[in-house]
Amino acid sequence: MPRVTIKEIARRAGVSQGAVSYALNNQPGVSEATRARVLKVAEELEWVPNRAARQLSAARSETFGLVLARTAETLTEEPFYMGFVGGVESVLSQKSYALALQVVADLDEELATYRKWSAERRVDGVIVVDLRVADPRIPLLRKLGLPAVLVADPELSDGMPCVWTDGTAAMNAALDHVASLGHRVVARVAGPPEYGDVWIRDRAYATAGRRLGLDVRVVHTDFSADEGAAATRDLLAAANRPTAIIYDNDLMAVAGLAVVHGLGSRSPEDVTLVAWDDSTLCRITHPRLTAMSHNIIGYGAEVTNRLLDLLNGARPQAHLYSTPLLIVRDSSGPPPV
Amino acid sequence: MPRVTIKEIARRAGVSQGAVSYALNNQPGVSEATRARVLKVAEELEWVPNRAARQLSAARSETFGLVLARTAETLTEEPFYMGFVGGVESVLSQKSYALALQVVADLDEELATYRKWSAERRVDGVIVVDLRVADPRIPLLRKLGLPAVLVADPELSDGMPCVWTDGTAAMNAALDHVASLGHRVVARVAGPPEYGDVWIRDRAYATAGRRLGLDVRVVHTDFSADEGAAATRDLLAAANRPTAIIYDNDLMAVAGLAVVHGLGSRSPEDVTLVAWDDSTLCRITHPRLTAMSHNIIGYGAEVTNRLLDLLNGARPQAHLYSTPLLIVRDSSGPPPV
What we know:
The structure is a homodimer.
Chain A: H1 6-13, H2 17-24, H3 32-44, H4 51-58, E1 63-68, H5 72-77, H6 79-92, E2 98-103, H7 107-120, E3 125-128, H8 137-144, E4 148-151, H9 154-157, E5 162-165, H10 167-180, E6 185-190, H11 196-212, E7 215-220, H12 225-237, E8 244-247, H13 250-262, E9 272-277, E10 290-293, H14 296-311, E11 318-322, E12 325-327
């Protein structure tokens, strides 16, 4: 594609190249009629400012990077990521920044991606999700000097800039809710324990269970619908079965509800179900699911704004984005008598 | 971050710069012991080939672009996109290509994104989704000379390279299925009629309905769970209500099932439900949903491979990726007597 030049616009508009430059840069020195004519010609020719040239001098890629170390299957199932990406994009598109998205198999590939991006100066900074306990990405990002904002509790971020939601307060609210309904035997279908968010919820769940004098149990899964369904089936088949189940994501809660129905049981009459994240899924089941709700799109936007601030010289710090809010719906009720 | 140089690796490995170059480029001229030592030092120093320099000469960005003109809310709800992006990524990550993803409000912003990407040479090519009837993106992409593969039926692509699934055959299979169960009054909860895929399904649905002698009706929606639920409610409240409903996506089918349950009705005893796309959602409801199934991850991968082929000089053409396959599950049954 031939580039549209100032010279070509000047020729077509019948004015000098200087006049075109004034008009396009919105500077005084040309009449309004000339400015209008130049802008019209520029638009017809699909003219765009030569940002590539500006970029070379500014040494900025105007691109943020996001690596997701999950299988394509998990990403398809899990509503969280697309919402988060949508939130990131809602900020970047305003700034004319691009998002480089890379889906990789595991953390090793994620580390390799950061090395490559850094060496090739492909991104100005990265957003890091799914923090692990003692996450190996933190020392690498420090070594590379690659600006980063972690989506993680400050307990996990080792002093790196981070944006977080208060998982401990949320778990307290979830257990207070089921205890206040009268439930004494409660289970949680959790994500993998090596994920930092799950680790924080594990601790909060045990602590709140003791505080409330509940019989609490946990089954760890890989966050998938299949494992969520299997865990629910096992829990409901056990002696002294739980009358309330808290899930670490939406998808497993929806799968758990189907297991309840498949057993000929009902929610909330036989079992109270509480989901996490509160995507649309929780509102399109029957009964609609009680959930710990947070604004995932807003969360993605917040993280992106903090990374922009960081690149503009802001002091690295931890930002509490929100505390998830309990939304009580039809799947909550007292335990069966 | 200081760049790691050949000189620094040579110094640390205690060999000449020439030897480092031979070792790193996997050329003869150094012993295996030297090669191993050089590679070890290079790895310790986080050395990566200077692709940025190679890129400038090759004038390739090694980036593909994908614009999604949907709200962040819709993207969160709709499992299709994340699966498609996962499939695109599964190919790009093998090739060390990046994906530039942009979420925009509407087609005008999408057109502006292509202009910008083209002018700034940010992407080598683009993948275009959600084709409209007489889509304005086609003439723009031609004018810009930006390589593109459309995710669209050849009827919609105006001769541009495209990858498609056979919506007409799929709709025939869906209607044959419900007719063979004995249903005579059938409804379809469809997407927006300006979408090319919906337009093709609209035509196939009307034709197959006439062929089978069915009473067929259509309600167009915006693909959202809310409108899918509202359409289901209206259809089931009507006189001569349908005994089978076909949905244009999964999300609306799940929302429709909740409406059926909310009315105290059951599927398939009172109404047969057929979903489209067959994401995980269809397998985690109770009853599990019959669906037109296609491999969305594989579809994303196929489109990406065709765009790579195009950049490598392949002749532009239309590729039939697949015909969606009917997966019969528990939500299918004969009409109530």
